[in-house]
Design a protein that fits this description.
The protein has 298 residues and is of the alpha/beta class. It has 15 helices and 9 strands. Helix 1 runs antiparallel to helix 13, helix 6 runs parallel beside helix 9 and helix 9 packs across helix 15.
């Protein structure tokens, strides 16, 4: 995702000869461990795993940061002046146009379920989704699905019976759909999907009409930052109108002020609150993973 985030970094440092930014790319769970366990001295923590970010903040790993820019943010985009949303993302279904040429475009999870059941030869070994055992972002998406609808579990069981492949990340899923190796990928990050679809004609992005979960990418300044003042300046730039325009127009990450995302049919924004911590409880997490693995890993 450095390609999407680089324009904001480059714009920020362009007129600051005494500042450079070292950007480290890692999985959401590795980010969590770096801050919670290793307490590595990073100055800004950015992740799409809202629940892990909230837990780090709730456990005392974040400094408070207030400025005129953060004060102007809508209440749903910040938490206790510590955790800030800077981009909104629909979570989407991605299908191969080649393989769906003779199939209807799925309108809902029930419809997708019906299409898969009616065409097992097309879908066997050719579906893909996150491996929630290893992906913090994938775990968030799956638990939010479970909260929205019981259809998720029926879909999971059918996907499991089809030998669904499990992936680390949206990029890998999109590459597999692009090549035609995979017919459909479930729960893909929307900005990545739209960027690939613009370049590759075989990728079609589908917003399922029963609901579309809307993710907030979030950032916070960790309490052990050694450059918290500069981190605050960069965070202000990221959240400013200038930074948001660069983020969306050059990086392809939808701005938090992009109202068209919230207007997607049956959009379900994932709330930036302590409700995110429910499935991070050890027993709840273990129970969820047990059920998920029973459904998907058959």
């Amino acid at each position: 995702d450095i390609e999407l985030f680089a324009p904001v970094i480059e714009a920020f440092v362009a007129d600051k000869s005494n500042i450079s930014i070292h950007y480290v790319l890692a999985s959401s769970r590795d980010i969590y461990s770096a801050i919670d366990t290793e307490q590595t001295a990073y100055d800004l923590v950015i992740s799409s795993a809202m629940d892990l970010q909230m837990k780090l903040v709730n456990d005392g790993h974040a400094d408070r940061f207030e400025s005129p820019v953060t004060a102007s943010l809508p209440d749903w985009a910040k938490w206790h002046d510590q955790l800030f949303g800077f981009a909104v993302e629909p979570i989407v279904l991605v299908v191969s146009r080649q393989h769906f040429a003779a199939l209807p475009t799925p309108k809902s999870r029930r419809h997708l379920l019906s299409i898969i059941r009616s065409n097992p030869a097309i879908f066997h070994d050719r579906l893909m989704t996150y491996d929630v055992n290893n992906s913090g972002t994938g775990f968030l998406f799956a638990t939010q699905d479970a909260r929205q609808s019981d259809t998720f579990w029926r879909l999971s069981e059918v996907m499991g019976s089809m030998g669904t492949r499990l992936s680390c990340c949206s990029g890998e899923m999109l590459a597999s759909v692009k090549s035609g190796e995979i017919v459909a990928a479930y729960n893909v990050v929307g900005s990545y999907a739209q960027a690939r679809a613009a370049r590759h004609s075989n990728i079609e992005v589908v917003h399922l009409e029963d609901y579309t979960n809307i993710l907030l990418r979030t950032a916070f300044i960790p309490s052990h930052s050694q450059n918290s003042e500069q981190a605050g300046k960069f965070l202000d730039f990221l959240l400013s109108s200038e930074g948001q325009v660069i983020l969306e127009k050059q990086g392809g990450l939808p701005s938090i002020f992009n109202s068209s995302i919230i207007e997607i049919t049956n959009a379900k924004p994932i709330g930036l609150n302590t409700g995110l911590l429910v499935y991070l409880d050890r027993l709840k997490r273990e129970n969820f993973l047990r059920e998920w693995n029973a459904a998907l890993v058959q």
